[in-house]
From TrEMBL:
Organism of origin: Sarcoptes scabiei (Itch mite)
InterPro entries tied to this protein: Rabaptin, Rabaptin_Rab5-bd_dom, Znf_FYVE, Znf_FYVE-rel, Znf_FYVE_PHD, Znf_RING/FYVE/PHD
Polar residues bias locations: 107-124
Positions of the UniProt region annotated as Disordered: 1-55, 89-124
Gene3D superfamilies referenced in this protein's UniProt entry, alphabetically: Single helix bin, Zinc/RING finger domain, C3HC4 (zinc finger)
Entry protein name: Rab GTPase-binding effector protein 1-like protein
Transmembrane segments: none
A GO molecular-function annotation: GTPase activator activity
């Protein structure tokens, strides 16, 4: 028992330090450390943890139970542990029939237990204080890093806002420049349209003048035709008059024969009729030609008047349009000159803004690079602190697992010792009808073949729990025994709970 308590004193405080220095962030474990520190300063409670307290209670109960009277009664326990869990242990139980030595060893064990418990409480209190200081340091470092990171985020946000504002100003300048280009293109288009309209007006004026000249020529031609026709008419009239006068002046020689005279009269009558017909036909043709020429002359005059009116109207519209275009061109020129002046001003402002913005962007880029470097460093520090936290968490979990395994081991050992002490009050050999489950793993039996009696303690186990064998007797025969009896009888092998933690007793 003294060896076990010495081993526990050398191991459990380290595990408590690992458990209590787990995190740099204040959580439940750090709160437990602070509470344990406050309790140790008040002097009310001096306990490392609940698991260690249960372990010490179990050891105390075991040592107190060892004072009971029995035939085989001394238990010497050696429990070595490391930081990862139970690695090896030896259970040495020697039979002794001396009741006085048992009582003496139990009293010594109780005294040593109390002494070791007080030493363990003092060392646990000291290491609790150290662990709490480490937690506070980690917490302060984390808060500092978080504050620095928040400041960096705020400054980066301000710089990004400034960059966005400068980009918006640059976009406005570009839009104004585009508007200026569009206005200049509109001025060019107006000039081109004015030139086109002036060319069109010149062409129309030229065509109108040519058409007027052709109409004048046609009118002159018609006038000459009328004069010619009138002269021809007058000539014809004068010719007929002359002919009639000549005929009147000529002497008429009539034939003497009545028949010849009658024939001559008839012939003259026919010539007269033919002359009248020709006269009427000629008059009709002349009259129709005169009417046609008059109508053609009127039509030509009407078309001339219409063309002159259209030309005058088009001339007026073209003049109005040219005046409007000239006024628009003047306005465009004024606007263009004003826009040129404003564009020069904006160009100068743009150059100034571009220079200042480029300088600011360079400054912001340098600051951003510095901030990114600081952020990367802070991220590395945070990652290292997180790795430390994870390692401390793993150590805490390991220590808690060690303490739980220690409690389970102590309880199982206590149960085993209690069963060993009570074995003298019962018949060692168990009957197969009295047992329905394995005494080791609590496996239910379905047939008698599965029930195997241990040749040392007489209890019934399954084939897995009673797989060990030991040599006994003068002929060194092999007998199947359980794991506990194999540990009791064979001192050269390790205990059954070296490789696996025993089940907690129910």
């Amino acid at each position: 028992m003294s060896e076990s308590l010495a081993t526990v004193d050398s191991i459990v405080p380290d595990e408590l330090i690992t458990a209590q220095s787990k995190n740099k962030i204040p959580d439940k474990s750090s709160q437990k450390c602070l509470e344990s520190e406050n309790e140790s300063s008040d002097g009310t409670k001096n306990r490392p943890s609940n698991d260690s307290e249960e372990a010490f209670q179990t050891i105390q109960i075991e040592s107190s139970c060892s004072s009971f009277s029995s035939s085989d009664a001394e238990a010497k326990i050696s429990l070595p542990f490391n930081s990862q869990g139970p690695m090896g242990s030896k259970l040495l139980i020697d039979s002794s029939s001396n009741q006085e030595s048992i009582n003496h060893s139990s009293t010594n064990t109780i005294k040593q237990n109390e002494l070791e418990k007080s030493n363990l409480n003092n060392s646990g209190q000291r290491k609790n204080m150290m662990a709490c200081e480490m937690c506070n340091n980690y917490e302060m470092q984390l808060q500092d890093m978080q504050y620095r990171e928040a400041v960096l985020h705020i400054s980066i946000g301000q710089y990004e806002k400034n960059i966005v504002k400068l980009k918006e100003d640059l976009k406005k300048e570009q839009s104004f420049e585009n508007e200026l280009k569009s206005l200049s293109s509109q001025v060019d288009q107006g000039q081109n349209s004015f030139e086109k309209i002036s060319n069109k007006f010149a062409k129309l004026n030229k065509s109108a003048n040519s058409s007027i000249a052709s109409l004048i020529n046609q009118i002159d031609k018609l006038k000459s035709d009328i004069v010619r026709l009138s002269s021809d008419n007058e000539k014809l009239i004068g010719r007929h008059l002359k002919k009639s006068r000549e005929m009147l002046s000529e002497s008429i020689s009539l034939p003497e024969d009545p028949e010849a005279l009658q024939f001559y009269c008839l012939q003259l009558r026919e010539d007269l009729i033919q002359a009248l017909y020709n006269r009427e036909h000629l008059e009709e043709t002349l009259r129709s030609e005169n009417i046609f020429l008059k109508e053609q002359l009127l039509g030509e005059q009407q078309s001339k008047e219409n063309i002159e009116e259209n030309l005058a109207h088009e001339n007026k519209t073209l003049l109005v349009r040219t005046q409007n275009l000239e006024s628009e061109l003047k306005n465009y020129k004024k606007n263009f000159d004003q826009i040129k002046i404003e564009s020069k001003m904006f160009q100068n402002n743009y150059e100034d803004l571009s220079r200042s913005s480029s300088q600011k962007i360079e400054e912001l880029e340098t600051k951003l690079q510095i901030l990114s470097d600081n952020k990367a460093k802070s991220a590395e520090e945070i990652a290292s602190l997180r790795s430390k936290v994870q390692s401390l968490q793993i150590d805490l979990d390991n220590s808690e697992q060690v303490q739980r395994d220690f409690v389970k081991l102590s309880q199982s050992l206590q149960v085993q010792l209690e069963k060993i002490r009570q074995s003298d009050t019962e018949v060692r050999w168990q009957h197969e009808d009295d047992v329905t489950e394995c005494n080791g793993c609590k496996k239910c039996f379905h047939s008698r073949k599965e029930k195997i009696n241990c040749m040392h303690c007489g209890r019934i186990f399954c084939s897995d729990c009673c797989s060990k064998s030991i040599q006994s007797g003068p002929n060194k025969r092999l007998f199947k025994v359980c794991q506990v009896c194999h540990t009791l009888l064979d001192h050269q092998t390790a205990c059954w709970f070296v490789n696996e933690v025993p089940l907690s007793p129910t």
